[in-house]
Automatic annotation (TrEMBL):
The chain crosses the membrane at residues 12-33. It comes from Gardnerella vaginalis 1500E. Pfam families: PASTA. This is Serine/threonine protein kinase. Keywords: Kinase, Membrane, Serine/threonine-protein kinase, Transferase, Transmembrane, Transmembrane helix.
Length: 242
């Protein structure tokens, strides 16, 4: 009986020790993550806060700090804009002064300075493209160039090219396609055979010739003679492909 009682005491002590060890481990883990990853716990302790007011040109770091002080997580996205490089442009997914849950990751657009966005200009209608490029705060020059019927009234080219910042001249040039006599500019980058077929209805003969170019333009149109976008009535056009 004495041995049985001793065994039961030992078992009880062992179970108590195990329970205490597990409890301490859980407490320590919670304390660590509470100290080191507060953002992870905002999901469980979220509340609603007012989005701080901010205007274009404000200091981006200041906007981020004011949001984080309210318990929001933030994501900064760089985008071309008319403000000085590094300055605040706008919120992407919330409105200033609105009250939203702190669970939301607030997306902040930060200026990269003026440039032509990778999307939204080339291929867009003239009206839509003009709104974007004029927001860059630099002079914009418009050029009308020959194009295929499909590109009539649409932006077919830009300088700088899409995804690039404005150069030293500080000007954005955009070319809008129009149905007129000449060498369509929008065959650039097309498959050589497709480009030739597209021009088969034009009043000039078309010849294809290879030209050294980068690998991404292999088999695609990289130039022409007369040059792409040239107005007039040529008797023959040579298309160069990579």
């Amino acid at each position: 009986k004495a041995n049985l009682l001793n065994n039961r005491k030992r078992l009880a002590i062992m179970i108590t020790s195990i329970v205490l060890t597990i409890a301490l481990a859980i407490t320590g883990t919670v304390w660590y993550f509470t100290r080191n990853t507060p953002a992870a716990f905002t999901v469980f302790n979220s509340k609603s806060e007012v989005i701080p007011k901010a205007k274009a040109g404000d200091d981006t770091d200041g906007v981020v700090k004011s949001l984080e002080n309210k318990g929001f997580r933030t994501k900064v996205i760089d985008e071309f804009g008319g403000e000085k490089k590094g300055n605040f442009l706008r919120y992407e997914n919330v409105k200033p002064g609105s009250k939203v849950s702190t669970k939301i990751v607030v997306k902040i657009l930060r200026s990269k300075g003026p440039g032509v966005p990778a999307k939204g200009v080339v291929g867009a209608s003239l009206d839509n493209a003009k709104k974007i490029v004029k927001s860059m705060g630099v002079p914009v020059k418009l050029h009308h160039v020959p194009s295929t019927d499909a590109a009539d009234g649409k932006i077919v080219a830009s300088s700088p090219m899409p995804g690039n910042a404005v150069g030293k001249d500080g000007v954005i040039n955009i070319a809008v396609g129009e149905k007129c006599d000449g060498v369509p500019v929008d065959v650039f980058g097309l498959d050589k055979d497709k480009a030739k077929d597209m021009l088969s209805s034009k009043p000039f003969s078309v010849d294809l010739r290879p030209k050294f170019s980068s690998a991404k333009y292999f088999g695609k149109i990289v130039g022409a003679y007369p040059a792409l976008g040239t107005k007039g009535s040529p008797k023959a056009v040579t298309l160069y492909y990579g």
